[in-house]
Amino acid sequence: MVNICFCSDKNLIQYIKVVIKSIQRSNPLYDFNFHIIRDFEQHEDYDDLVEYIQKFSNLKLTEYKSEWSYEYKGMYHISSSATMLRILIPELIKEDRVLYLDIDLVVNIDIKDLYQINTGETGIAMVDGNPGVMLLNLEKLRKNKFTEFCIKQNKKQADHDLTLINIYANKNYVALPSKYNVMQHELNAKLSKIKKYNNHFIFHFSDRHKPWKYPENFRGKNNRRKFHYLWYSAKNYIHQ
Length: 240
Prior knowledge:
This protein is α/β, with parallel strands linked by helices. It has a single domain, classed as Spore Coat Polysaccharide Biosynthesis Protein SpsA, Chain A. Helices cover 30% and strands 20% of the residues. Strand 2, helix 2 and strand 3 (59-65) form a beta-alpha-beta unit. Helix 6 (146-156) packs across helix 7 (161-169).
């Protein structure tokens, strides 16, 4: 069983289905437990997601309702404090380890290879200090009082969860290969590297150019939109 976690508000919950479809397409033989932490009561998009997961015998859903009740300082392209729910993962999810994934990405890899990586003493493995994809050893994070540390740090000076997680890790996180989080906002620097991955990577739409904001057949000159087809390909995938 592979544990995967998402955190969401009601505005973005609909896009989790696309991530799950991309996971199914690349990993048809594995069992998954999707842990969804949400900061809202009910919403039709969430009901639709639950109904979708329940269709498959190899997919399980574990639900959590929580809120970030501390000061929040968002980034320019992120207006929701739901992103801060990542800080609460070790206290909410009672598993040994979990793979956290942002909602704005597609998975084109064998996820077991990533899931089995050692997370080191900090209990965190990620690419370039970006927590959009994080393998978390929850036992170590609880032992290290990760959540308590981040909340105390936020009380000293309110900041985004990306900053809090990196302050905790203090550059001692396990550095994942860049193929596990190819970030759209760094695409110009990574275009030459993508070819060597042979389409086996996690692509992260990490800036304001989200694929769902553009038509499916849109092809702009901006390299950041060049890979939007990956998202629509996952969206249109029909599990056999």
